[in-house]
Amino acid sequence: MITNNLRKLSIGFLVAILIAISAFPTGNGLPTGITNESTTSTVIANGCNCHNAEATASVIVNLTLPKNFTSGETYTLILNISGGPNNLADGENRGGFFVTSSDGELSPTVNDTLVQKPFGFNHLTHTVEGNDYREWTFEWTAPESDDISVQFVAYGNSVNGADGSQGDYWNNQAITLYGVNAVIEVETHNELSGPQKLIYAFAIIAVTLSVVIIGNQMVTKDQAFEDVLKGYWKAIYPWLTTTDHKYVGIMYICTGFGWFFIGGILGLLIRWQLMEPRIDGDFLTYEEYNSTFTMHGTTMIFMAAMPIIFGFANYLIPLQIGARDLAFPRLNALSYWLLPTGGIVIYMGYFTGGAGDVGWTGYTPYSSGDSATTPGTDFWVAGQIMLGASSTLTAINFLVTMLRMRAPGVTMMRLPLFSWSILITVFLLLLSIPVFTVALILLMADRTFGTLYFNVEAGADPILWQHLFWYFGHPEVYIVILPAFGVLSEIITTFSRRPIFGYTSMVYAMATIGIISFIVYGHHMFTTGADPLFRFIVMLTTMLVAVPTGIKIFNWLATMTGGSIVLKTPMVFALGTVITFTIGGITGIVLASIPIDIALHDGYFVVAHFHYVLVGGTVFAFIGGVYYWYPKMTGKMMNEKLGLLHFAMSFIFFNAAFYPMHNVGLSGMPRRYATYDESLADMNEFISIAAMIFGLAQLIFVYNVFYSYKNGEEAGDDPWDGWSLEWTTSSPPPHNSFTEIPTLKVAEEEKNE
């Protein structure tokens, strides 16, 4: 009896389970489509979860919609899916879809056998025949009102080709379509972007360190809070109010290297984004990526390289020509303070919805239109104008100083080659910066006042901006590399223990580079459709500039060949610079060829080229300059072992990071893109890792600077046995640079006396 009852209960329990399972709504992946109430409600609520619990990113659903809609109009829409387990061009049971709209009416096209609209529903789905396709066409009739928005949701299922749903993958896409008269409300997000998080993190760290340092002073020295602040203010005040060229020069150098590390962090963010192929928002959104490479390029060129050059020039030019200061000390101070102010203005975009995203070149019509970030791009333009004013005032100051304030005996052809490089550089600045500044003012007028200087629809020349920008932009390359040549000449001469080979030819070579730089800018515009004769002439002049550059390289080699080389840290950086810059110069000749440039212009080959020139040339040279002139500026020697370790790490991992970029460029990887083809993933991962080690290696340099300032050996007035006038004064120099103005004499003059 008990056994019979248990048997009846068991049967009843099993029947109940079967009924429950049959009643539970499931999204069956049937080839007949989603056609009943149960499966429809399940797909809307949970997606195609009968195939997989979660959507799969490898399945790409793309619903093509018009830009906006007009009331009552009928539009033809296309839905396709790609990726997933069955991505073949043809075959049976390949995929299915389900699409809904919040308003309007969806309907199959006339006589279409691939798409169906189930009776009593407003969604569309595939038919049995449509299950063998991955693209479907249908119609949508807009609602009677076009001042609203309509939400479309499309589900796509990539079927594995076999019976059943196992192994199938799905994804969905939601799109909002606005009517022509709809008011679009911009949704504000409180979440900070990646770069904003970094800025706030560094700000918090800085405040925390300040509190710790001040607190330590209060505890260890038993000082009141006000007394600690007074002590710091007493130390800072002379730097804030100084007009001494040496103080201003050091502030330029420190500011430039500060921006250099900020720009480097942005560069590492770029490399982290490119560590692997990423979709929008996986690390940086595509807009954030655009802002990041814009700010990276702008920072490195205008806010790092230029200030470092001006810093060395400020400190050394009066010393090398035997002057007590620059011609206009107050103007010099004004030029400096415009630099951090302009930099802060440029970076204000990060706090107002997004930094400028127009690239460091700021190409119109993108930068002049509504697509660029607002007001981030406006801040970018305003800050650039301030930096241009700073550079112009600085150039005027140096030009007057070098032409009118040289000490007795310091003739033009007795100037150190670093001084010659700065003289030619300021001529280039005065001829090119005003053109760029005018272009920026016109761009600001377009963005702010609605003028039409760069509006193509109003008849403006679509490449006017490129002509104005590159008339400045290519001389800018020589503006930052010529001073590096001057630094190399000083270091190689000193550590080869002989005068430079071919001094006169070196001067003429630098002057020739400066002249030719204004007639080669068009090689940046080979792909613009410019006049063929113009492009041909520019190609020839671009190749011609290799001649004076080659003269300089061979003169350095000849100087070393006939000398007695001493391998100290400044010299090994100089040797490394000659190697890396030569590689960058050779790839520049490759890109000077019109057909090659057209093929490689927007690829990573170009990125590799200009990093070899600007980092392998300018940055390496001026880091060597820091090691060379640090004893003169501080009276202390930098640690030699740390310096050699810094060079080894930097040289190895710089080449490991940037040389493979030639390869990925030749493989078709475009620049300025936030993602790339998966076939290049391994090489990009290697590049990113090497770039991060290269960035971390610069911390050795920072540590060496601070460690040597506190613990370095006393340098003496001339620790390197240098040749130029700055080594004749004390280390560091006195307030007026020289106790008395020196007179430069050559050996023959001294014998005659």
Present the secondary structure layout.
Layout (H helix, E strand, L loop, with lengths): L1 H22 L13 H10 L13 E5 L9 E9 L12 E7 L3 E4 L6 E2 L7 E3 L8 E7 L7 E10 L10 E10 L15 H27 L4 H17 L3 H29 L12 H36 L7 H19 L28 H29 L12 H33 L14 H33 L6 H14 L15 H13 L1 H16 L7 H24 L1 H7 L3 H31 L5 H27 L14 H31 L35 H6 L1
Antiparallel strand pairs: 1-2, 2-7, 3-6, 3-8, 4-7, 5-6, 8-9
Helix pairs in contact: 5-6, 5-7, 5-18, 6-7, 6-8, 6-10, 6-16, 7-8, 8-9, 9-10, 9-11, 10-13, 10-14, 10-16, 11-13, 14-16, 14-17, 16-17, 17-18
Could you walk me through the main structural features you see in this protein, from its secondary elements to its overall organization?
The chain has 753 residues and is α+β, with helices and mostly antiparallel strands. Strands 5-6-3-8-9 form a five-stranded antiparallel sheet, with no helix packed on it. Residues 19-29 and 748-753 have low confidence and may be disordered. It has helices spanning 2-23, 37-46, 194-220, 225-241, 245-273, 286-321, 329-347, 376-404, 417-449, 464-496, 503-516, 532-544, 546-561, 569-592, 594-600, 604-634, 640-666, 681-711, 747-752, and strands spanning 60-64, 74-82, 95-101, 105-108, 115-116, 124-126, 135-141, 149-158, 169-178. The chain is 56% helix and 8% strand.
Low-confidence blocks of residues? 19-29, 748-753
The total count of helices amounts to: 19
Largest sheet: 5 strands, antiparallel
Return Rg in Å.
33 Å
Helix content: 55-70%
Overview features:
alpha+beta, four-stranded antiparallel sheet, five-stranded antiparallel sheet, 19 helices
